[in-house]
Specification:
This protein is an all-beta fold and 125 residues long. It has no helices and eleven strands.
Length: 125
């Protein structure tokens, strides 16, 4: 089992920045090579993919809606993945979830095995 805990959410004005963190614990040894993803869910909407990164950190994927504004990164020594969010817009308001998969980096939420509880990001216009 892998436990994921997100942090760093909050209230920010449009145009501002936030950095989300996701700390992993449990089965986080080198025997479990996992890609990480960030997803988000706005009120009344379905959960959507935002960004993902492979184990080594040299392959990333972004949704078109966040490309050029968000940056995903990871520090395996700290078992932590980050999502740097810049130039935030009101439409970025959502609960942000991190997730882990033992497979390759992917946009597909069904491929992820473990999920955090989420952190709220609210962007005021």
């Amino acid at each position: 089992q892998v436990q994921l805990v997100e942090s760093g959410g909050g209230l920010v004005q449009a145009g501002g920045s936030l950095r989300l963190s996701c700390a992993a614990s449990g089965r986080t040894t080198s025997s479990y090579i996992y890609a990480m993803g960030w997803f988000r869910q706005a009120p009344g909407k379905e959960r959507e993919f935002a960004a993902a990164i492979n184990w080594s950190g040299d392959s990333t994927v972004y949704a078109d809606s966040v490309k050029g504004r968000f940056t995903i990164s990871r520090n395996n020594a700290k078992n932590t993945v980050y999502l740097q969010m810049n130039s935030l817009k009101s439409e970025d308001t959502a609960v942000y979830y991190c997730a882990a998969t033992g497979g390759i980096v992917t946009r597909l939420d069904g491929a992820y095995d473990y999920w955090g509880q989420g952190t709220q990001v609210t962007v005021s216009s």
